[in-house]
Amino acid sequence: MKKSLLLALVFALAFAQTQTVARAADPYEINVIIPLTGIGAFLGTNEATALTLVEKNVNAAGGIHGRPIHFNVQDDQSNPQVAVQLLNGVIAKHVPMLLGSTLAAMCGAMLPLVKDGPVDYCFSSAIYPPKGSYMFSGNISTKDLLAVNLRYFRERGWKKIALITTTDASGQDGDRNADALLALPENTGVSLTAHEHFNPGDVSVNAQMSRIKASGAQALIVYAAGTPLGTVLHGALDVGLAIPMSTTTANLSYNEMKQFSSVMPKELYFTGPPGVALDAIPNGPLKNAVRTFVNSTRAAGLHPDIGLLAAWDPALIMVAALNKLGLDATSAQIEDYIQNLHGWAGAYGIYDFRDGSQRGLAVNNGIVVRWDPAKDYWVAVSKFGGAPL
Fold first, then answer.
1. Could you tell me which of 386, 30, 389, 356 has the C-alpha nearest to residue 181?
2. How do 135-137 and 119-122 pair as beta strands?
3. Pseudo-torsion of CA 108, 137, 386, 375, nearest 10°?
4. Are 280 and 380 in contact (CB under 8 A)?
5. Which one-letter DSSP state was computed for residue 339?
6. Three-state DSSP class for 244?
7. Which of 145, 136, 183, 152 minimizes the C-alpha distance to 362?
8. In whole angstroms, what is the distance from residue 84 CA to residue 108 CA?
9. What pLDDT is recorded for position 139?
10. Is residue 101 reached through a cis peptide bond, with omega within 30 degrees of 0 on the bond before it?
11. Edge-to-edge, what's the strand order for the sheet holding 245-247?
12. Using CB atoms within 10 A of its CB, is residue 170 exposed (0-12), middle (13-18) or buried (19+)?
């Protein structure tokens, strides 16, 4: 009887140890809510690809404390209501963190739900979470990027500016920031000759482009992402508007450049992060971080662009937090870690979250690039901050 009891105990202990090892080997899941369908899919599908690369790289390096990670990606369909439904499901799991969404409308709808956690790292530059909150915002802010854009145009001598924006949340953000920046002393002498709007679903903006042409504008800023940008480029071609144009970071998409090649203006500029300007970065931690991003994407047969960039740094910052704090870290611990993170080099720049911006990036991280068909990629035309080269 004693021998049987001893054997049973040995088997029970062995089974328990096996189960513990199995659980330890299970991937640590990080939930992600992004648009894989709908108007934001041109970004979301690339973000999902970037997360696959991060997952592969992290796991190849041993995971987090020896445990692999896995990004559980869910499709919000570019719909704020769906994003909220998915977020409620994630919150019900009592997880400490998540990533997403991609566009301002979805992140804005999600923001009130994470006021007490979990930590949510949104990928949009057009969302401004309250200081000290549980939501962080990816990319350089829309306002800072527009400041870089205006400085470049101003110092090139293009001071008569036209603006066309979509009527959605991202376009409204562009409107507000343009008004605020044009009122600053450094932009004295810069005038807005035309300010036009259109719905993202409109198939023509020829009337708006005709008014911009008649206004005498020397350059045009386009706040429209994805298909709506194509609508504007078609409209410019239709009415014969041939002036320098700039557009948002969201359009730093290689696939878009191919898609719009037949209507591409002679000069199309973008304000963006260092991740699309490797050759313009001096040697140091920033260039090393950008090179890692570029090499990883090219090794996978991909073109390093904003879709891949948008998710790259946020994912790695979350991984860094877990490496530092351990896999049992709480939302409060992760939030505190990010709030105090500084000197961290990523593909978007050198981060310092102590500025209270909830994004850790500022105007000096932005750079102006131009699409170069001959090089089949973007080339830097400004210094960091927007001063022309």
1. 386
2. parallel
3. -100
4. yes
5. H
6. coil
7. 145
8. 10
9. 87
10. yes
11. 191-198, 160-166, 219-223, 245-247, 268-272, 367-372, 377-380
12. buried
The pairing of beta strand 119-122 with beta strand 69-75: unpaired
The two structure tokens encoding residue 384? 């960091």
Predicted local confidence at residue 322, as pLDDT: 98
**Which token pair is 382?**
């400004």
Dihedral (CA of 96, 105, 254, 148) sign: negative
Beta bridge partners of 136: 121
Alpha-carbon span 357 to 70, nearest angstrom: 29
For residues 330 and 360, give the distance between their C-alpha atoms in angstroms, rounded to a whole number.
Answer: 21
The single-letter DSSP state of residue 223 is: E
Share of the chain above pLDDT 70, in %: 94
Cα separation, 47 vs 285, in Å, equals 24
What are the distances in angstroms from CA 258 to CA 241, 252, 263, 303, 372?
21, 11, 10, 12, 12
The pLDDT of residue 10 is: 43
| pTM (two decimals) | 0.86
- Could you tell me if residue 246 is left (phi over 0), alpha (psi between -120 and 50 degrees) or otherwise beta? beta
Cα–Cα dist 265/133, whole Å: 41
Q: Which two structure tokens, joined as six digits, stand for 389?
A: 């080269």
Separation of first and last alpha carbons in the chain: 87
Tell me whether the omega of the peptide bond preceding residue 118 falls within 30 degrees of 0, making it cis.
yes
Question: In the structure encoding, which two tokens stand for residue 204, read together?
Answer: 């023509």
Q: Nearest Cα to 311, choosing from 139, 85, 67, 120?
A: 139
Q: Which residues face 192 on adjacent strands?
A: 161
Contact call for residues 121 and 318 (beta carbons, < 8 A): yes
